Amino acid sequence: MPAAVLSFVLLVAHMLTNGQYGYFRDELYLLACGDHLSWGFVDHAPFTPFVAKLTRSVLGDSLHAVRFPSALASALLVLLTGFITRELGGRFFAITLACLTVIFAPVYLVEGTLFSMNILEPLFWMGCAYVLILALNRGNPKLLIWTGVLAGIGLENKHSMVFFASALVGGVLLSKDRKLLFTRWALFAAAIAFVLFLPNLIWQIQHHYPELEALSNAKRQHKNIELSPPAFLAQQMLIMNPINVLVWIPGLWFLFRGAAGRYRSLAWTYVILLAMMMAMHGKDYYLAPAYPMLLAAGAVFWEQATQIRMRWLRYAVAALVIVVGCIAAPLSMPILPVEALIRYQNALGFHPPRTERGHRGKLPQYYGDMFGWPEMVEKIASVYNALPPADRQKAAIYTGNYGEAAAVDLLGGRYGLPKAISAHETYSMWGPRDYTGEVIIVVGDHDSSSARENCQSVDLGPQVGHPYAMAEENFQILTCRGLKTPLQEMWPALKHWN
């Protein structure tokens, strides 16, 4: 099967390239969360930290090891797309084209490189879609039970699974297959999903819904760049590979009209999701997990439309997908040395896209957040190890965000650094430990006025910054002595979830 071959090729490609550059900010954070396993975290669900812990225990914490689950998930997504294509009526060409469109979609290349919940998400979304197609094709509603399993685990991976599940239910209601929702199998599926999600739901209730609070704070602070509907659509075309428009738009038509409308529920699912994301001003990649089913359907469309005449068109479309995908690949995978990457993106006139207002740098955020961490930790160590022994015994390393704290936690051991503390996101729940605030090395403070206000004395340390890192990681390390309010007492006011 071509899908198996292409998925293996993609897995090898990721493993050959994903050791470039350095740890991504969120990878560091997820590794730290893996050391504090729980049924919930402030800004994400618990499944991915569990995977991080398992991977680290088995494979270690090298870049290749940390990123292996994402490379594997990326390959599995290609394989799943092949299965969906075959179930929609596709043969060799359609399966090959569908898999190529997924392989060369920039958003999936990025997500397949970085360890996060994002590349796992389309497996759960498209797994549900595949099960629905199987149930429709075989007239077997009992298969719907598996959508409950996938949706439940998907909710433990990322809470946006609720949007896909809602859209899928809405899509089925708008189709002629709405009777499926009123079978006992659909009810069993809903019950299974709820039971699997229940531990995280209980944790959210016990902690007063921290994720909702974090999302509300981000919205109030206008953290994310809000796109207008036309801009959102334009970004969809860009992140999915502009040539793939020739496949997924016909794919949407095929789901609406093809095979006597048998798969119309999936077409409505995409439309409902698109409307949701536009209405909520979601980030451009939030809709990305829904595209493999459209790409699979579009590949079947091209195969059937060129079955007798204009067969050259199918090969032209496939060739365009590959050529444009190869041109864009260095912008989405760490293939080139960073200096060559900057020259390459300048030659293409490529301007790094931004999804959050605070992220600025020479590189796209997904690359920029891979740089500067070892250098930062080394400078922190120079400050820490220069302290008198008595001060080192009680010195806390306090960071402004979870990336800085997690970098200290992972990379600081070689310098004898203690674990960092931070009031950002889930780090705030782990507290200040036994530190009193007598000596604090402050990391990530761009304005020393706060430290001067709260400390009896402040010493200025070395400047931190890396030419390829994000601008927010450019600051001066401070050493605060004699915190005026005990750290334990001050901690709740320091919390910032955004």
Distance between the termini: 45 Å
- Biggest β-sheet description: 5 strands, mixed
Over the alpha carbons, how many angstroms does the gyration radius reach?
A: 24 Å
Could you state the order of secondary-structure elements as H and E?
A: HHHHHHHHHHHHHHHHHHHHEHEHEHEEH
Number of extended strands: 5
Helix content: 55-70%
Question: How would you name the oligomeric state of the polypeptide chains in this document?
Answer: single chain
Flag low-confidence runs.
none
- In round numbers, the mean pLDDT is 92
Count of folded domains: 2
Strand order of the largest sheet: 2-1-3-5-4
- Report the sheet-strand fraction: 5-15%
Structural class given helices, strands, pairing? alpha/beta
Overall geometry comes to: globular
| Count of discrete alpha- or pi-helical segments spanning 4 or more residues | 24
Description:
The chain has 498 residues and is an alpha/beta fold. It folds into two domains: 2-338, no CATH class; 373-494, no CATH class. The protein has helices at residues 2-17, 25-34, 47-59, 63-87, 92-103, 106-113, 121-138, 145-157, 161-173, 184-206, 210-220, 229-239, 245-257, 264-279, 291-305, 311-332, 338-348, 365-368, 373-385, 389-394, 402-411, 427-430, 449-454, 487-494, and strands at 395-399, 421-422, 439-443, 455-464, 475-483. A five-stranded mixed beta sheet has the order 2-1-3-5-4.
